[in-house]
């Protein structure tokens, strides 16, 4: 039986690509240096998969930034503002699209389905001209072949690409992106023919859009696309790959009827119901790539359960028509357990990172072919039993406290308008108050101090002195800039989730379990393996210190329970809602300790609320109910005079705006500038929002510094649909990844924009 992997992490086991990219962006190394690092990484990944025994190895899953942006380059769909004049899309143009440059803003960035990975959103219109403008897919196939490794080139499928795009600003209202299908298909066909000429036997086209609830017209687009792409290929097989959820019945019936598609890939981890469709509507003349090894979590596969599923599939389809695969790309998993030093032997036995998942795929394929690795299966069975019975996993007191939550909806008793009036009595903020989202630039010196206290190279006293000095500096800077509500800058924090997870029971942490979020940005998700509780206060000391050095209001900064959940590797032995409620109780305790410590503005970030929304509409209401309830649990015990903020970033919020309102926060700051101010449309359509709201006036993920007038104009657009008494002025997101040389002028312009608008409103 063949084995297959949908995709693999591209950063490298030690984040080699991250550091090469950032060195290149900083002008410290050349494009040739970057390309050499990339080539070495690709070679090592292909060899690793070949050595593991994977028979169908993906290529073209490597990217300098994002696979959707790679597709934009392939199609030559570069927005005119970047001045590209044709030919191959080079690195300067590519990175300008991704990050912006000194004069032009970046393209919009948003979440890849319901993951924490971000993609660059294509901007298309009726005037967009498409041409074959990047030979990356063919070049990387040839590169692997020169190493003696046959691969399956991977492309983002044409229908998914168009459906994830947005209409450019000049496009007519209601422009149908699928009307461009006829224009892009010839480019796709040219690429596939080039791959065939280079020797490719398979081409994988990723169409995860198929797991959404698509209307019939969009399903018709698949018939058109794959009829065109598959005709007259001869010798190249097309694999249509889906992932992240169950395939709706109508979509499944459509794709199994595609004449020129040789194989269908499905996610049988998050899409377990698809198994019933496979049994009911048999594939005819097609191979099933069965995604049984979880690409989005780090728990070891229960091999016995997976073998049972394989046997069912073989019985339904025939042994020769089933290939064992991952549920999706392993891009969403950590890279390798091999070098982990922070996890004990028992915990490690419960886990499988990307490298170990390769072995699981191969072991399952071998077992299905009658060549079971008895030792491998025995070790797996032992680990599964250990995890089920371990006392480290279960805490009766936490379980009882969580069960008791079901008796209340935990709403604050006083309406938000009344609370805001009470809060203003002591905050005394100007109209259009200014604030930032939380973090300030993490300098090399601060990172060094954190490393050295962990390795005991400096004392706790020296560490505290250094962090206090940094807080003093950040507070003074904000006072000098005349910002109204301050933050302490979070110099003590490595990551907004990891920082809290390190102080909560039920969490553990890897040393090198990095996962790409966007571009060079990597996160190291905590691993939630057991019931969650808070042994002691986590942030009160630093927040109280920061408040003590200023008369301005100082925000206490917390990460919310839904974001901690969605940005962690979550235990898969109980419902996610149960784990969320456990975290909510821990954060509730912290909120109340901050309030008792004199902090009157507390921000509970829920940056990841939207990304946890299930892809299927039938499942969304349940998620929104328990996620919003989890947030309200954290705030239900505070006084009316305590102002609760929350923050959300880089997602499509319009379809959950009513859930955001239902969170009942006093103020929400939310990404707005990079998404072409989509948020405006919500309020234009009549949604009433009585709480404070701060739509971001500039994109912090770009080095570009917007002018005062540009930021003022963004705020004016919001004032057209919102009352001035509820509007806040702030950046899109935290400033951790920026440099002070960028932050100071940007915040200066932001504050000046607020003052300019106050003067205009006073006239």
UniProtKB/TrEMBL annotation:
InterPro entries: Cbl-indep_Met_Synth_N (IPR013215), Cobalamin-indep_Met_synthase (IPR006276), Met_Synth_C/arc (IPR002629), UROD/MetE-like_sf (IPR038071). Pathway: Amino-acid biosynthesis; L-methionine biosynthesis via de novo pathway; L-methionine from L-homocysteine (MetE route): step 1/1. Signal peptide: none annotated. Its cofactor is Zn(2+). Gene3D superfamilies: 3.20.20.210. Residues 3-316 form the Cobalamin-independent methionine synthase MetE N-terminal domain. Keywords: Amino-acid biosynthesis, Metal-binding, Methionine biosynthesis, Methyltransferase, Transferase, Zinc. It comes from the Eukaryota. Residues 432-755 form the Cobalamin-independent methionine synthase MetE C-terminal/archaeal domain. It catalyses: 5-methyltetrahydropteroyltri-L-glutamate + L-homocysteine = tetrahydropteroyltri-L-glutamate + L-methionine. Its EC number is 2.1.1.14. It is an enzyme of class 2 (transferase). Belongs to the vitamin-B12 independent methionine synthase family. Catalyzes the transfer of a methyl group from 5-methyltetrahydrofolate to homocysteine resulting in methionine formation. NCBIfam families: met_syn_B12ind, PRK05222.1. This is 5-methyltetrahydropteroyltriglutamate--homocysteine S-methyltransferase. It comes from Sphagnum troendelagicum.
